[in-house]
ABC transporter ATP-binding protein (Paenibacillus lacisoli), 599 residues
Amino acid sequence: MKAMQFYLKKLYSVTGSRLLLNMLLMIIISVVEGFSIYMLIPMLGVIGLFGSASGSYSLPLLSGVMDSISGILNLPVVLGLFVVLLAGQAFLQRYQSIMNTTIQQRFIQTLRYETYKGILQSRWSFFLQKRKSDFIHMLTTEIARISQGTTVFLSLTSSLVFTLIQIGLAFWLSAKLTALVIASGLIIFLVLRRYVKKAKKLGDQTSELSLVYMGGITDHLNGIKDIKSNMLETSHTNWFKQMAGRLEENTVQFVKLNSKTQFIHRMTAAFLVAAFIYVSIELLKIGPERLILMIIIFSRLWPRFTSIQSGLEYIVSMIPAFHSLMGLQRECAEAQEPVLIQGGSRVLKQEFTLNKEIQCKQLNYSYPEASAQALQDINIRIPAHGITAIVGKSGAGKSTLIDLVMGLIEPESGRIVVDGVPLSGDNRLLWRSCISYVPQDPFLFHTTIRENLLLSAPGATEEEMWEALSFSASDEFVRQLPQGLDTVVGDRGIRLSGGERQRIVLARAILRKPSVLVLDEATSALDSENEKKIQEALYRLRGSLTLIVIAHRLSTIRHADQVIVMEGGRVMQQGGYQQLSDESQGAFSRLLSYQTEVN
Ligand SMILES: Nc1ncnc2c1ncn2[C@@H]1O[C@H](COP(=O)(O)OP(=O)(O)OP(=O)(O)O)[C@@H](O)[C@H]1O
C-alpha cells in the first residue's frame, strides 16, 4: 500500500496539473456518456416504444423536460441530439487518449532520465559492487513494466470515474436495484481480493526472474568468444532453456490468474442479470423504460468491474518493478559524486592543472567486502611534467593506486595532495577533468572513428584529429580504411584489431589535451614497431604533460624519470630506472631478471 502511495505521489509530482485535467476530462466524458444513455428513452418514446413521445415517462427529470420540449420533439431532433452527444464524446475521448499517452510518456521519460543520470553520476566504488546487467535490466525491462502499468493505471482511473458516475445515475433511477448490484459486486470483489495478493507475488517473481535472465544473457554475450572457443555452447544453451521456461511459466501463471478472475466475473454476471430482471419485474415492479436503462447501464458497467479487477491485479504486479527502480535511484543518490560547478570542462581544466606534483601520503585502501587490504601505507611523489612508471606483479595494486590518484575511489585513510591541495569530495571531479585515461582493455563505441574521437573533444577540428591519430601511430591504417575517419568500428570496436583499438583510444585521450595522461598497460597489444613509435611520441610530450604509465614489459619504461615498484599492495622501491636496476637485491631487479629469463 505504501509503495502504491509512493507511486501515485511520484506520478503526480511529474505530471501535476495534466493529471488533474485528465481526471476532469474523464468526469466530463463519463457524464456525457451517461446523458447519451438517458437520451435513449425519449428516442425510443418517439418511435412509439413506450406509447408516447412525452409526458408519460416515470423517469426523474425527464418527464418535466419532455413536457416543455414536447412540441419540438420528433425523431430527427432526438436523433440529431443523440449524434451531437456521441460526436462530442468521441472528440473528448480522442483528446483524452492523447493526454493519457502524454502523461504516461512524460512519467516514463522522467523515470528513465532520472535513473540513467543517477547511475552515471554515482561514484566508481558504487559500480564495483553492482552488476552492469542490473542497470540494463532497470532501464529496459523494469521501466517497460512500469510504463505498461501506468497505461493500465490511467485506464483504470477512467474506468473508476465512469463506474462511479454510472452508479450515481443508476441510483437515481432505482436505488434498491442499484444497491443490490453494488452489494453483489462488492462481495465478488472481496472474494477475489486474494487473487490481487497472488498477482503481487507473481509480480515479485517476475522482477527476480527477469533480473537473473538479463544478468545471464549479458554475461554470456560479453563472454561469447570464450563460449565459442571453449565449446561451452551446450551448458549455456541449457541454462537459457531453463531460464526461458521459468519466464514462460511465470507469464502463464499470471494470465491463468487474470483469466480466472475474469471468468468468475462473467459467470456471476450471467446469474446476476437473471436475478436482476427477476427482481425488477416480479418484486420491484419497475417500469419498462427504467428497466431498459438499468440493463443498459449495468451491461456496460459489468465489463468495467472486470477490467477494474484485472487492472488492479496488473498494477499490483507492476509495483515491485517501481519499488526496485526507486530503490536503485535512492542508492544512486546516496552514491552520488559532488556535482560539477557550472561551466564547461575548459573552465574546470583551468582551475585544476598539475604544475608541481602529486603526493600520496599514508594511503590505505580495501575493496568493499574484500578480506585483505589492496593498498597499504603508500607514500609516493609523482612530479609534474615527467614520466612515472608503476610496475609490479599481477595483483600488486597498480590499478588500484591509479584509481586512487585519479580520484575514482577514495582512500580508506591517508591523503592525496595535488600541488599542495588535498583531494576531497569537492575538487575530485575538477581534478579528474584534467586527466585522460587509457585502460588495459580500451573501449570504442559502436560508431565511426570520427565520432569516437569527438566524444572526448567535441570541438576538435579535422586537422587536430589527424594530428592525434599520427601521434598514436594510427593515421596510416585509418587512411587505408574504406571510409577513413567515417568507418564504423563495430560493437566495442570489434572490427579493429586489439592494437588498432588501443591506438585509436590513445588518440582520443591525447585529443582532449590533458594535463595528466594515465596509460594502464595501454600499449600491451601493439607490435614492437608501433609501440616504439608511440614511445617516441610520448617522450616528446615530456615537459608539457605528466605521464603515468603502468607497464608489464619493463623495456618500455627505460626512459621513465621515476619507477615505482609495487608488491602485495605496498611500494617496495621508488627511483630512476638505472638506479633501481643497479640495486641487485631489490624487487625491481627481480622483475627484470624474470623478464630476461622469459625472453
Ligand atoms: N573490484 C575488486 N573487488 C575486490 N578486490 C579487488 C577488486 N579489484 C582488485 N581487487 C584486488 O585488489 C588487489 C590489487 O588489484 P589491482 O587490480 O590493483 O592489481 P594490479 O597490480 O593492477 O594487477 P594487474 O597487473 O593484474 O592488473 C588484488 O589482490 C585484487 O584481487
Notes: The pocket of adenosine-5'-triphosphate is lined by residues 128, 367, 370, 374, 392, 394-400 (CB under 6 Å).
